[in-house]
Specification:
There is one protein chain. The protein is built from five helices and three strands, in the order βααβααβα. By secondary structure, it is mainly alpha-helical. It has one domain. The chain is elongated, with a radius of gyration of 16 Å.
Length: 109
């Protein structure tokens, strides 16, 4: 599992996905990208962000990457992932430090 507790615009997660995707051709798995994204990547990649604007940009950036908009049109057919049904990116608008703040306040009291 990969967690970015302060993901901002999703640059770290974007780089992780880019690295994983770059390894697929060397292992002869290029045709299996969509299945990998659906069954292994989306359930294991998470990001938390506190501010709305970076949160929205992270969703946009990662969705565009998974749709193959960062590769040439010729490569897009092989690397584009089409979200279907109730699938979504694991990027959440939340304060990843909230529970820690509550515990620290209790300990100080």
């Amino acid at each position: 599992m990969i967690l970015d507790p302060a993901c901002g615009t999703g640059t770290f997660l974007y780089t992780v996905i880019d690295h994983i995707r770059a390894e697929f051709p060397s292992q002869g798995n290029a045709g299996m990208w969509s299945g990998y994204v659906r069954n292994h990547l989306l359930p294991r990649i998470f990001g938390f962000e506190l501010s709305m604007a970076p949160y929205a940009m992270a969703h946009l950036k990662l969705a565009m990457q998974l749709a193959g908009l960062d590769v040439t049109p010729a490569q897009r057919e092989k690397w584009a992932y089409d979200f279907s049904g109730k699938e979504r990116l694991g990027i959440f608008l939340t304060n990843s430090l909230e529970e820690a703040e509550r515990i620290a306040q209790r300990e100080q009291a």
